[in-house]
């Protein structure tokens, strides 16, 4: 683990590695301007901090979770903190790249309220409504994020502006071919686990909220849904740190698994009921299980600690400007005490887009993009 190394050496190593990386990225961009043809006209993104690209930077309030300060973004082009809870890109960016976009579409609140930038982006590449801390339930961390239901309302308002610009037929065609990426539920489960009550009632309200969101998007013209399920919540550094042997919390993992089962059933029933709806359910849970069982196979040396943080497992604090970083950021599954590293996002996107069939059902993201 990097935390025991003398700080000066760690710092020098990081400067060297990041400057080399930056040059590679720049060189790559110049030589290969997006070799991938656009697979879909646009991508619209909904969910939580696993997908947020900066919406929360525009929310008022001290309690709003934001990744807009170093050392977030240290490996992003220009070493810029963007609002992504990652050292660089995250899974939405890598999925976007696979779809032939430059990176995740921009944050809705960075475009609105000005109509023109919003419509231009919505028509050309898409919009991200994802918000860190958000849940399926409006009550989850209420007042400090954009809950799923409100993200869907923002999409509705976006659609109205698109229609005013290019007409409803063009918008209908565009939306039916576009990729709707959703990852949400973790925050609801974390909140529930802190004060557990009736788990059956919990699942039922989560599934009903998720169903309402997908159905609303469908009614507005969305057809292709790429849904990422909830991962091994009990294995994030912040949770492991609560255990004296740094073990995962099996109860939290079970809670997530139960939700994922219900989500799987929900999607099957929605697809049976809503003509033309197609989906790919990405199994973040089992991908984490496989990865944690054999970290070396994915190039990881550490699966239990935050690369950026402090104290035991790097989990005593968030990733802060004065945090001590691990050596090779790509060798850590986790960037901060809750969120995956850029490398983990890249490997997840690869697995969901065109990885082995075990990580997506009933089709993978590539097949979903090409549907119809
Ligand atoms: C730590 O994890 C182990 C293995 O899951 C478990 O048996 C033990 O009860 C946990 N300890 C605490 C304090 O939660």
Automatic annotation (TrEMBL):
Gene3D superfamilies: SGNH hydrolase. One of its GO terms (biological process) is lipid catabolic process. GO terms for molecular function: hydrolase activity, acting on ester bonds. It comes from the Eukaryota. Pfam families: Lipase_GDSL. InterPro entries: GDSL (IPR001087), GDSL_Est/Lipase (IPR051058), SGNH_hydro_sf (IPR036514), SGNH_plant_lipase-like (IPR035669). Keywords: Hydrolase, Lipid degradation, Lipid metabolism. Belongs to the 'GDSL' lipolytic enzyme family. This is GDSL esterase/lipase. It comes from Lolium multiflorum.
């Amino acid at each position: 683990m990097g935390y025991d190394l003398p700080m000066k050496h760690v710092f020098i190593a990081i400067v060297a590695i990041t400057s080399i990386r930056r040059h590679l990225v720049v060189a790559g961009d110049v030589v290969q301007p997006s070799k991938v043809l656009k697979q879909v006209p646009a991508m619209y993104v909904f969910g939580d901090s696993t997908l947020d690209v900066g919406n929360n930077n525009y929310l008022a309030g001290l309690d709003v979770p934001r990744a807009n300060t170093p050392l977030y973004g240290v490996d992003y082009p220009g070493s810029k903190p963007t609002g992504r809870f990652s050292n660089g890109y995250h899974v939405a960016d890598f999925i976007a790249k696979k779809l032939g976009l430059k990176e995740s579409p921009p944050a809705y609140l960075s475009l609105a309220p000005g109509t023109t930038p919003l419509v231009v982006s919505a028509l050309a590449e898409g919009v991200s409504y994802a918000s860190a801390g958000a849940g399926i339930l409006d009550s989850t961390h209420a007042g400090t994020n954009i809950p799923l239901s409100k993200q869907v309302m923002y999409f509705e308002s976006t659609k109205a502006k698109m229609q005013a610009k290019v007409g409803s037929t063009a918008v209908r065609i565009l939306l039916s071919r576009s990729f709707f990426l959703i990852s949400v539920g973790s925050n609801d489960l974390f909140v529930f686990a802190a004060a557990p009550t009736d788990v059956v009632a919990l699942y039922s309200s989560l599934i009903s909220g998720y169903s309402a969101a997908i159905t609303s998007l469908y009614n507005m013209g969305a057809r292709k849904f790429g849904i990422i399920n909830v991962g091994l919540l009990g294995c994030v550094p912040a949770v492991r740190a609560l255990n004296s042997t740094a073990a995962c919390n099996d109860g939290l993992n079970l809670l997530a698994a139960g939700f994922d089962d219900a989500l799987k059933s929900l999607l099957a029933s929605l697809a049976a009921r809503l003509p033309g709806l197609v989906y790919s359910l990405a199994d973040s849970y089992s991908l984490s299980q496989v990865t944690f069982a054999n970290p070396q196979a994915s190039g990881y040396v550490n699966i239990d600690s935050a690369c950026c943080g402090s104290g035991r497992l790097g989990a005593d604090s968030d990733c802060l400007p004065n945090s001590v970083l691990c050596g090779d950021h790509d060798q850590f599954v986790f960037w901060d005490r809750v969120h995956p590293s850029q490398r983990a996002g890249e490997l997840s996107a690869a697995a969901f887009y065109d990885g082995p069939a075990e990580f997506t059902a009933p089709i993978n993201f590539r097949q979903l993009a090409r549907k119809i």
